[in-house]
């Protein structure tokens, strides 16, 4: 019998790519999303790309904090596990509107956990973030590093991790994998799915992409005086398809073992500077990205990249793609959908 997986936030960037992998892997998938930061077109694209498996996807527009709606869903379907992506993720907005972030991310997660517990579904994969390492004292970051958060968004990730550790301590039937993503970029190689942020992008790659398609005049580089190879910040960029594979590996681990509550980094273990990323994107797209060199962005760390050993060892998972493939697929998506899912030829 196919396993039934509930995916919260499955219309979003990472969620939609993961849902496609799950469908192709033979899972039955229910997505809930309030579409706050996503489009139902993403769901339609997933169904199309999944071919014969597309009929194994059910979508409900539900807010995570709507407990009666969640209860109804769990009463109608026996889920084997939940992958929990749903959450707000804009760091700057979280500083301006902390209560919105605490309400959405923390209350939403507690509501989900309560309903899961009540219906005896105690297997969870949660989207945490490398942001919980703050400004790491050294690299690569291992999972045992001290945790810190410099903004409300990061604190929601930290708190939710702690909540998960607490519920496991209180009830060892829970099996939870916390995945700390480094910097997800790229798009599905079909060019049919990708990241479609609302408003001005906060993150590097979506911004570069919008400069390349002519939506913005130049990329502002935040900081050229870091102690790095070229003075710009260094990060661990990971292809979203590799990241999705990491979720399949985590799910498998939940089904194959009594893991308890464990945390894994999902990164490549390689650091790339802002200027190296710009260079790779220019090569992939053939477009020139005009740069404005500016001061550091408050709260930014200098160098962050992952130790990948634990995930390789325990989950048998390793990222396959490099920067060239990430930029190639990002450009393929951008050039076909310059306005994301709202692009004129994206209407069906
Ligand atoms: P995204 O915004 O594209 O996807 C999140 C989805 O959750 C959206 O579709 C949104 O509409 C939905 N959502 C938000 N609040 C909801 C609620 N209360 N009820 C129902 N649906 C809700 O973001 P993403 O990049 O796909 O990120 C997915 C997860 O991974 C998030 O939890 C994010 O914090 C985490 N994460 C992302 C990154 C990154 O760089 N993209 C890095 C580390 C961690
Ligand atoms: C940011 C968030 C982090 C979140 C992560 C993934 C902050 C302080 N941190 O991390 O909490 O988990 O995104 O969503 O916002 N850069 C530019 N110009 C830009 C954008 C970025 O030079 O317009 C630089 C940054 O200074 C950084 C690198 O590009 O050196 C990557 O930035 P970004 O994509 O925002 O990711 P993080 O800073 O790692």
Automatic annotation (TrEMBL):
<feature type="domain" description="NAD(P)-binding">
    <location>
        <begin position="6"/>
        <end position="329"/>
    </location>
</feature>
<dbReference type="GO" id="GO:0005829">
    <property type="term" value="C:cytosol"/>
</dbReference>
<dbReference type="GO" id="GO:0003978">
    <property type="term" value="F:UDP-glucose 4-epimerase activity"/>
</dbReference>
<protein>
    <recommendedName>
        <fullName>UDP-glucose 4-epimerase</fullName>
        <ecNumber>5.1.3.-</ecNumber>
    </recommendedName>
</protein>
<keyword id="KW-0520">NAD</keyword>
<dbReference type="InterPro" id="IPR016040">
    <property type="entry name" value="NAD(P)-bd_dom"/>
</dbReference>
<comment type="pathway">
    <text>Carbohydrate metabolism; galactose metabolism.</text>
</comment>
<dbReference type="InterPro" id="IPR005886">
    <property type="entry name" value="UDP_G4E"/>
</dbReference>
<dbReference type="InterPro" id="IPR036291">
    <property type="entry name" value="NAD(P)-bd_dom_sf"/>
</dbReference>
<comment type="similarity">
    <text>Belongs to the NAD(P)-dependent epimerase/dehydratase family.</text>
</comment>
<keyword id="KW-0413">Isomerase</keyword>
<dbReference type="Pfam" id="PF16363">
    <property type="entry name" value="GDP_Man_Dehyd"/>
</dbReference>
<keyword id="KW-0119">Carbohydrate metabolism</keyword>
<dbReference type="GO" id="GO:0006012">
    <property type="term" value="P:galactose metabolic process"/>
</dbReference>
